[in-house]
């Protein structure tokens, strides 16, 4: 079984091959398969009550 998800997150740091992010809906040490930039023109991210 392969589980995949799509979510937005904040990039905290990039060090060689290690990417550190916050505000992501994933388990610790989960592999990131693909990362893409967020564009307000094409993407829509809903804010939760604690983010507004």
From TrEMBL:
<dbReference type="InterPro" id="IPR036413">
    <property type="entry name" value="YaeB-like_sf"/>
</dbReference>
<comment type="similarity">
    <text>Belongs to the tRNA methyltransferase O family.</text>
</comment>
<keyword id="KW-0949">S-adenosyl-L-methionine</keyword>
<protein>
    <recommendedName>
        <fullName>TsaA-like domain-containing protein</fullName>
    </recommendedName>
</protein>
<dbReference type="InterPro" id="IPR023370">
    <property type="entry name" value="TrmO-like_N"/>
</dbReference>
<dbReference type="Pfam" id="PF01980">
    <property type="entry name" value="TrmO_N"/>
</dbReference>
<dbReference type="InterPro" id="IPR036414">
    <property type="entry name" value="YaeB_N_sf"/>
</dbReference>
<feature type="domain" description="TsaA-like">
    <location>
        <begin position="1"/>
        <end position="47"/>
    </location>
</feature>
């Amino acid at each position: 079984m392969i589980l995949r998800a799509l979510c937005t997150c904040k990039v905290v740091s990039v060090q060689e091959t290690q990417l550190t992010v916050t505000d992501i809906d994933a388990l610790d040490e989960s592999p990131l398969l693909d990362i893409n930039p967020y564009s307000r023109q094409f993407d829509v991210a809903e804010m939760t009550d604690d983010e507004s």
